[in-house]
Structures are given as C-alpha cells and as structure tokens.
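Teaching assistant here, posting this on the class forum so everyone can see the example we discussed in section. The complex has six components, and the goal was to see what a joint structure prediction looks like when all of them are supplied at once.
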Amino acid sequence: MILMDDPKQHLLNVAGQKFAEKGFDATNVREITEAAGMNVASVNYHFGSKEELYLETVRHAARMCEQITPMPTWEEGVPAEQRLREYIRSFLTRLLREDVPTWHRKLIMREVAEPRPGGCEVFVHSFVKPSFELLQGILRDLTPPGTPLETLHLIGSSIVGQVLHYHHARNVLKLLFSAEEFQRLQIDRLTDHIWRFSLGAIRSLCPRKSKGEGR
Amino acid sequence: MILMDDPKQHLLNVAGQKFAEKGFDATNVREITEAAGMNVASVNYHFGSKEELYLETVRHAARMCEQITPMPTWEEGVPAEQRLREYIRSFLTRLLREDVPTWHRKLIMREVAEPRPGGCEVFVHSFVKPSFELLQGILRDLTPPGTPLETLHLIGSSIVGQVLHYHHARNVLKLLFSAEEFQRLQIDRLTDHIWRFSLGAIRSLCPRKSKGEGR
Amino acid sequence: MILMDDPKQHLLNVAGQKFAEKGFDATNVREITEAAGMNVASVNYHFGSKEELYLETVRHAARMCEQITPMPTWEEGVPAEQRLREYIRSFLTRLLREDVPTWHRKLIMREVAEPRPGGCEVFVHSFVKPSFELLQGILRDLTPPGTPLETLHLIGSSIVGQVLHYHHARNVLKLLFSAEEFQRLQIDRLTDHIWRFSLGAIRSLCPRKSKGEGR
Amino acid sequence: MILMDDPKQHLLNVAGQKFAEKGFDATNVREITEAAGMNVASVNYHFGSKEELYLETVRHAARMCEQITPMPTWEEGVPAEQRLREYIRSFLTRLLREDVPTWHRKLIMREVAEPRPGGCEVFVHSFVKPSFELLQGILRDLTPPGTPLETLHLIGSSIVGQVLHYHHARNVLKLLFSAEEFQRLQIDRLTDHIWRFSLGAIRSLCPRKSKGEGR
DNA sequence: AATGAATGAGCCTTCATTCAT
DNA sequence: GATGAATGAAGGCTCATTCAT
C-alpha cells in the first residue's frame, strides 16, 4: 500500500499521470480513483469535480516544473553565447529528462497545445512568458542595438521551435529514424546542435555584433 | 440550406471540422449530424461507426492536403538554396494558408501529435516521410559530401521544428505577441526569416560548401 | 442466383428458415432480405410489416406440414392397434424426418410452445385439434365403452407427450446420450418403442378390451 | 412499496420474472428496472450487463428449483414402484406447483428448450442429468437384469416426456380441453395416471420381473 | 472525514420502417 | 413493381456526480 499521508496529494499525482497520458476526455474518474486505491467519490469530495481536479493538476505541474528544473539565472558578465547555450540546455532538460516524473511536462505541453475551454490561459501566460522573455534578453545581447523587436521575436521562435520539436515530433521521429539513432538524441547532443545552429544563424543574420556582452 | 449532392461527403466534411476542432472523444455524433442537418443514424449508415468515420476523415484530410498544397518538385539545375526556400514556403503554406478548409491540416497535426490507438501510423509514415526525405535531399546538396546522416537529420529537424512551431504554438503566440504583430506573421515573412536563418546556420556549420548545385 | 419466379414466395421461405432457427425477436429484416438477395424494403413492400411476414410464414408452415406429411386416414376395418402405430409413426415423421425442409415444423413447434401475442391461436386450434381428435378416435376403440373422456384425454396426452419429447428435448438428449446412441433414435425404432409402451399401458389400465375393432 | 433490503436480489427476482415470461430478447432493461422501481443503470451497476444479469437469473432459478422442490431420496428397501411414483410426483411438482414463484421453472425450461449461445450448457448438464440418472436407477430395479441400457433410456424418455408434456403443452391443453377439465389436471391426478400408465407399460414390455426390490 | 451505493443524463448503435424515384 | 437511401425511436451501456451513512 502506498503511503498516504496526504490523500488529496496522492490523488492529484495519480490523476496527473493519467491526464498527461491520455488527456482529459479519455480519462475517467473511476480509473483514477482505482489506480489511487481510493473511493470513486473522493474526486468530488476533495476537488469538487473532475474539471477542477484537472485544473489543479495543471497548476501543480507548472509549479513542479519550475521548481524541479528551474530556468537558469546568471550573474553579471556571463557572455550571451554561454547564456544561450544554458538556456537551450535547460529548456531541453525540462522536456527530455527522465529522472523526474514526466507527467508534469506532458500535461503542460498538452495544455499549451490545446487549452481546455474555460482553461488556464492565465497560467500559460505566467508560465511561458517569463521563459520567452529570458530568451529575448539573451538575444538582445547577441544582436546589434536597434534590432527590431519583431526580428528578435522571429529568432526566438526559431530557437524555441527547434527545441520543442523534440517533444512534439517524438512519435514521428521514432518512425523516421532508426531506433539506434533515436536513442542518441540526448540532451547534450541536441543542446550542442541547436546552440551551434542558432548561433551561426544569428551571426549570419546580424553580421556586426557577434560578441555578447553582459546585459 | 447547404447543397447536399453527396450527403456522405457532406457528413465527412462536417465531421472533419468537428474532429479537427475538438478531437475524437470530445465530439459526439449527435453534434456532427445536427451540424450537418442530417439524421443521427446517418453516421452509422454511411460509415458504419463513429470510429470508421474518423479514420475516413483522416484519410481524406491527407489526400486533400497533398492535393491542394502539394510539395514542390524541381527540374534539374535548380539551386539548392532556392529549393530550400520553396520547400519552406510550401510547408508553411500547408500549415497557414487560410483560403482552403483548415480542418485538413488541423486533423492531421492532431493525429501526428497523438495517434489514436489502432490508428493510422502507416498513413502518418506515408505522409510525413516523403516530405522529410525531400528536405534531406536538399540538405545533401547544401552540405559538403561526407556530411554524416545524423547531422543532416539534426539540421532537418531544426528546419522542420521552426516551421511547425507556428502551428503548435499558435495559441501561445497570440498571447505573447501583440495582436498587430501576430497578424503580420504571414507566410512570406516567415518563409523569408526561416530560410535566411537556416541557410546562415548551415553555412556556419559547414563552411566549405556554400553553393548548391543541382542534385 | 436463385430462381425467383415468385419473389414473394422466395422471401417467405427464407424468412421462415430464419424465424424457425432463431425466433422472431432475434431475426432482423436486413438479415432475411440479404439472405434472400433482395432489398431491405421488400419485406414491407410484400408483407406490410415484419410481424405480418412472420404470421404468413407460420400459416405457410402449417399448410405445408399438413400437405407434405399428412396424418393418415384409414378405411373401415383397420385394427386400432395398427392405426395407433401408424398415427405414432406419422407424428414422429412430422417431427423428425430430414428429407424435407425442417423449418416448417420447427416454426410451428416454436409457435405452439410460445405463441406470439396477437398471434395465431386460431390456427393452432385448427392445426393441433384434428390431430388430437384423430388419436382420441383410435383410443376409443382401444378402450372399453364407457371409458370416461378424461381418461382418454390423459392417455392421449401420454402418447403425444412421449412423441413430442424427442422434439423438445433434442438438445438435452444430445448431452445425456452418447453420440452413437443419439444417432440411433430413428423414426422406426421410436415408433416401435412408443407403440409397444403405450399399448402395454392401455391394456394394463383397461384390462377387458384388448382387441381393437373398426370404428 | 416493495421491501428492498437487498436491491440486487430484488432486481434479480424482477428480471427473472420478465425473462421467464418473454425471453431475453423481448425484455429490455428499462422494463425490468421500472418494474423493480429502480434506476436504469442499476442493472449494469449490480450485474455488469444485461447478459450477465440473465445468466445470474438462470443460475438462481436452478438453485432455487433444487432447493424448493428437491428430488426425493430413499432409504434402502423402498420398493421401486413406490420410488417411481414419488419421482413422478416430485417432477410434476417442480413443474406445476403454484405456491412458489413460477418463474424459476419457466426460465429453466426456456433455457433447456433453447439455450442462449455462449450460455449455460454446463449448468443444464448438471441440473438435468442427476434427475435422469435417478430415474434410470429406479427403472433398473423395475426391469429384469440384463435389460439393455438403450431400453432403459427409451423407457425413461417415455416417462419424462409424459411429465414434461404438461409444461410444454400448457397453452394448447387450455384450448383442447374444457376450462373445467383443465382445472382438474392437478398434480395428484396426473401422478396417478402417469404412474399407472408407465408401470403397466413396463410390466408389459418386461413381463418377468414385476416386483421391485430395494436397489 | 470519507465512503459505497445508486443515479440520470448522455453516448453510440441497431432496427423496422418510410419515401422519392 | 421494386428499390436504395435515409429516418427516428429505442436499445444497452458509460460516466461524473450525489447522498445517506
């Protein structure tokens, strides 16, 4: 029997896993409560409704994501190139690391891709925006002053898109690549590639300024 | 009243829209048939079951995607740079053009992201793979001979990731960017950016060969 | 393709088989019409409704039963013992012979055992009663004058019960007896047994009169 | 309002009645649950499915039949004639007594006559066989040693057939006999007739041995 | 505080029947 | 005269939710 110091928390964890795996609609409360070894009514008792339980799992996932794999912060003077590399690595780590419960990120990615109506746009805002702005700060230091905001946004999107691809296309990549090659798509290797790819691109787009000074 | 020369086709179209919007589970047949102005039993009459109707919409979507916005082919001698540009443009067009029913691509992207069990992996294979191999051919011409396959795959993924980002992140981009800026994310502009970004990156990664000859 | 000089008759035959096999409720019109190679609407076109088609098959079955295996008639002077034997043989033949379509009797037995509401009690009357009265005539000759009607009825029921048992219990007998023994339950053998059994019983019940004279 | 100490049992009883009356196909769950004063979903809640509820009613009916009207057992030395009489009486009692719920036997007879596919042949075996073997034991004592098994089977079938006739032909007998005479077909009277009829027949078939000793 | 029994709305599907042709 | 398409009522079943305990 699983220790149940906090039954509500236990229920939340089990529900989170199920929702992350199969989505809201395909998961029913009986399945959740049985897997949790609890009563069918416990969902409504603790959370009021299935809907509210779902929102709670999403909020919890966001908190845990941030806590377990925080985005980096730097002291003054760290070169923008290095910061970019660490940003990419952190982002990839969030998506791919396997030494922590994976349902957090799966659930969030699911919610970002297709927010439930009446859902948590506010939360998405508060979760995604800081990360994107962190990247914008780095890019500002990698590009000449006066580079239009829109250009920064496009470059940012290019970098984020590359990273997220390894989440979104995981099913397809398994089919396109050999099992062996798929196995080698590890965080280190991907960080290295995306960093070099993006840095080369940025230097090519904005030839002047190639040395990143502190912010 | 909608013209109903072919009621089965009409039903397929309405169902496709619904499935693309809300997914299989969240869409019920009553909703589909009411929207189509047809009887509840018509789904089972024409397609046998909701499941089979769904599969049919996916197959139809794939056919139409390919037919309406085919990937480009080139004659001998077209420079690889130009081919890359046209590849990116075609890909973006598939994802973003608004002058054709959008449910085709939405449904396919949904199925790629999360294939239904017992679903159409075969189809995905046959739909995604050629596109990716077309890109690989271009990249082979843009990189020095002897460039490892794995490198080509990584570069390919970087390009595809950038493009797909504007599909996957459409909800988030709406929140991150101003409405005005979001509006400006048109095919032309994005093609231009991704092309220049990627080409710069490739040249930077593989400095020698910068001129793409015919294949 | 089956010859369809009379499509209505063809439909009736196919329906009769299905109804006899699986009963009214478990048989649906699509199944019937498909087996008949005809249109779904043909049932309603030719017979008005499934219900009416059913009644028609029962009526047809009764006519054919009577026509194919008529109950015997005798000239003056045939001994009652012989008439009893031939009665039993005819009855068993109706139930067990396999060289004619079996659905007629199956359907009738089904209807007798459990008449459909609004069904054909009238018909049953007209079908069963003559047969039972034929038997009563024989028994009157086998028993002393003045034997109460009720006794004749009981004896008649005993004989009919024995015969019908091989229809009603066919499923169970298959389980109770060896396959070999079950195979041997042929009309001749059963006639012989039931006749001797019943005759012995009658003589034992009514010791005086053991010689059957003509009526 | 019916007492509902055990709602599951109550549902079983109501369902049993309906199934016995109209058969599985013609009975729908709404009808059952309404008659039981319960919710439509209660069938699936308590029994999983309509099919499983049906099987449960059959099993219950078999248990109750055996329990309420058990077949007799005898000590050493009871004459075979007496045992035959009591066997017939018990059998008739099972079929005709009206002081206990009648759906038990109706349902069983229905299942015996036409077992549902995937049904309970095993059960039939275990229910019918012992009864038939009990009779065989009696007949062995009523017939000379060396009487072939097949003869015993035929005699047994003749006896069982007579008894069952009053169940199978109940609808027809109502039409053939006057209401008054039909009313008089009581257990005592029928036992007496079938016993004397059969005993006379056996003695006539096997003239030697007429005294039944204990087994 | 937490449960197990029980509910009713809603789902997909089947079916006899109808209607335009 | 006969069909094939289409219908709507009804069926069994699932599910989130409720309620007495």
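For the discussion questions: Confidence is low (pLDDT under 50) at residues 209-215 of chain D. Chain D has two domains: 7-61, 71-205. Think about how each of these relates to the inputs above.
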